Amino acid sequence: MNDCVRALHAIQARIAAAERRYHRPPGAVALLAVSKAHSIADVRAVLAAGQRVFGESYLQEAAAKIAALAGQAVDWHFIGPIQSNKTRGIAERFSWVHSVDRLKIAQRLDAQRPDHLPPLNICLEINVSGESSKSGVPPAEAADLARELSLLPRLRLRGLMAIPPPSRDLETQRDPFRRLRELRDTLGQAVPALDTLSMGMTDDLEAAIAEGSTMVRVGSGIFGRRGA
Ligand SMILES: *Cc1c(COP(=O)(O)O)cnc(C)c1O
Asked: Residue 217: CB within 6 Å of ligand 1?
């Protein structure tokens, strides 16, 4: 068996174990396989093993993979930083964007989302940990951005995403995830249908699942360390 496929099964087992341990319903947590910096051959192997949802961070690299796998049922999620001149390429190719943190970017994605495609699913990236991360909306500004974004007809606001600083300790890992969940609960009173918490990566997915993650984004845990 391909190494990535073996690793995929191990990650699926970790997710299932965390769901049981933290009293989440089975299947409550979706797996986004983050294939950035990894080959199309590895993506094909993981796809053949039944994984249908993939995350990419760089448009150019993603576009090549998406073209190579055209015709296969793959759901592509954009999770990287977004420059204005990349919004059209993203709006045309992806079904989700997890990393929206400015109204201007949201407006461009809305205007450029092709009519023949369903609305683009959006998560707001939140800077839950303050100065340690350069991208993301400050929590205090999230409600205004969510309200404005929810008026854009070609976008569908689904929830929140965060990338907290790495930590080895489970309790320390849980803290920013808890704050993201609480922010989602608060915003959910003004903007309905916030059903998504995109949080948890290879090294902290258990902490994220404990705090209510609905989608973990796993790269190295499936594809190996980048460049390896
Ligand atoms: C690369 C990346 C991931 C995956 O991280 P791993 O630690 O390799 O699992 C998840 N989310 C984002 C936004 C990323 O850029």
From this structure: yes
